[in-house]
Amino acid sequence: MADPKGFLKVPERELPPRRPVPVRLMDWKEVYEQQDPTQLRRQAGRCMDCGVPFCHQGCPLGNLIPEWNDLMWRGDGRQAIERLHATNNFPEFTGRLCPAPCEASCVLGINQPPVTIKQVEVSIIDQAFQNGWVTPHPPERLTGKTVAVVGSGPAGLAAAQQLTRAGHTVAVYERDDRIGGLLRYGIPDFKMEKRQIEARLAQMQAEGTRFRAGVEIGVDISWDDLRARYDAVIVATGATVPRDLPIPGRDLAGVHFAMDYLVQQNRVGAGSHVAEQITAEGKHVVVIGGGDTGADCIGTAHRQGALSVTNLAIGKQPPTERPPHQPWPMFPTVFEVSSAHEEGGERRYLASTVEFLSNGAGEVRALRVAETEYLDGRRVPKAGTEREIPADLVLIAMGFTGPETDTIEPQLGLPVDASGAFARDADYSTAQPGVFVAGDAGRGQSLIVWAIAEGRAAAAQVDAFLEGSTSLPAPVAATDRAISI
Ligand SMILES: Cc1cc2nc3c(=O)[nH]c(=O)nc-3n(C[C@H](O)[C@H](O)[C@H](O)COP(=O)(O)OP(=O)(O)OC[C@H]3O[C@@H](n4cnc5c(N)ncnc54)[C@H](O)[C@@H]3O)c2cc1C
Ligand code: SF4
Predict the structure, then answer these.
(1) Does the Cβ of 216 fall within 6 Å of ligand 1?
(2) Which residues, 6+ apart, have CB-to-CB distance to 182 below 8 Å?
(3) What tens digit of pLDDT does each residue of 332-366 get?
(4) Closest ligand (CA of 221)
(5) Residue 62, ligand 2, Cβ within 6 A
């Protein structure tokens, strides 16, 4: 156990500094600096090594949190990364991007600020990369079986790494020109620089995973062909269909889906040329939608030099404290101030957009927005409360309805279920023998930690399908829903 009195001696949470707002707005680098090792050790020492560590229950990966807290407190970073990698293929992604349901369910959080679990996690993996402790683990023998993984987001990558290490010959197909899924082209660099993806891909390539970027299955290779070529197929294509706002004026120039905007900036950041890039420079920007994607648009718009950024959310402002109906250890919906919110802009709640207004030349000039009222549990615009918000650029960040089905449904015969995601069994298998579904494609738009957990678990089921049994871990069933998030 880490320091038995650690949580008594150090009652407060300490996190590393964020770079000053005026400085970080001038570049696209990550916002957080590295934590001072003494401070990190002190924080790891707050862990109580609980008899029933609720942090495990909160983490879909079942991360061995008290073990690596203890190891970091003892200064044994090498063992810590072994224990962290035992349950998580990519802690550099979750350590930066996860909303940390583990912290919401940390026992210390009942009457003190919880352990800074996510910060300990990212410090372990950063130290491991810096010290050369992240090395390839190629398989000792090859099984002769082949697996195609379609989609190179965290679910596809986790499945591919597990199956490659189990001795199968794995190819990852990605329709984009670069590997990484939403980690690559959705999430901005200021949340996670792309070098984190490159470092992990180098390890995976050295282990033997093959990557085929720029190949769209269903178009460049039919799903039937793919099935014929491989012994098993994992569909990890994400849930990328954006929820639209079909109100008058939706077709005006200057109204875009958030992902069209974010992908372009990420392409430019990667050194690609984007003709007629959608940019916020010199514009009044309105972002519709108060989630992660909306926050990413806000941070991007400020870095591009927006004149103003207004963020509209249709619902009420969440409370700042855990509400009574979401007691510990549940993941509470509380008012969050992300690094992007800290950088500026205005957040408005109970705002229902009813119309996009034109400047007469086919371009958006303003939004007509009404107050939201609740009628029979439905959120509707309240008559007589409409007002205008000026806007030259509107970004719709209202979530995603599910996976793209155009080629998969007809060619592969995979139907969607009531939730709009691909139908599958608890073991990730589908009605098509040898075809499995993992990540957002089967769960709907979710979190990186769930995608990695599903990728690992689907890999175990594929291994069992190919070999008759498996020793790969399966942290979650496809039917598991969050207890805490
Ligand atoms: C803007 C944004 C910000 C987010 N921020 C966070 C965050 O901070 N923290 C967090 O935990 N989660 C975040 N999420 C959610 C998270 O990114 C996803 O839950 C996660 O990436 C899902 O992983 P996945 O592997 O299932 O799919 P994806 O990451 O969506 O990857 C699917 C890949 O499949 C490819 N593909 C699709 N069809 C085909 C085909 N036919 N052939 C070949 N390739 C194909 C796609 O091009 C894509 O690259 C965010 C999401 C968005 C949109
Ligand atoms: S619940 Fe919190 S205090 Fe208890 S073991 Fe997990 S991280 Fe440590």
Answers:
(1) yes
(2) 153, 238
(3) 999 999 999 999 999 999 999 999 999 999 999 99
(4) 1
(5) no
